User: What shape does this take?
Amino acid sequence: MKTFSPTPKDITRNWFVVDASDKILGRLATAVAVRLRGKHKVEFCPHLDTGDFIVVVNAAKVLTTGRKLDQKKYYRHSGWIGGLKETSLRDMLAKKPEEVIRKAVRGMLPKNRLGRAMLKKLKVYAGEAHPHEAQKPETLDV
Assistant: This one.
């Protein structure tokens, strides 16, 4: 018996909607990263993108535990001397709640071009509405 190795034509991708309201950020991000990577499928292959499309709604209503709202910092650098900027989780949730979930999931994906391709299948929206109704996404409980 030969070992089955999937090819790109063998991959089927489904669409799922995840409601992030009242979910813990890290636990939500791990479940989304597993689905994006395709590790829940039987035909998972580490060198292929076998994952599904994930639409996350209500990103502004995500929760965290402890004192992370004030203690967790997001850093970016302009490239200039003294150009390090920091933003707290509370400010990020107020200004760009989509980026909070996107950055949490990105940290759990491979750090190469395959991981960047997987991240393109993640669609995050701050509110309830999303433009992907034509794909007939199924609801996913996390």
Residues 14-64+96-139 form a domain with the Ribosomal Protein L13p; Chain: A; fold (CATH 3.90.1180.10). The mean pLDDT is 96. The CA atoms of residues 79 and 85 lie 11 Å apart. The two ends are 37 Å apart (CA to CA).
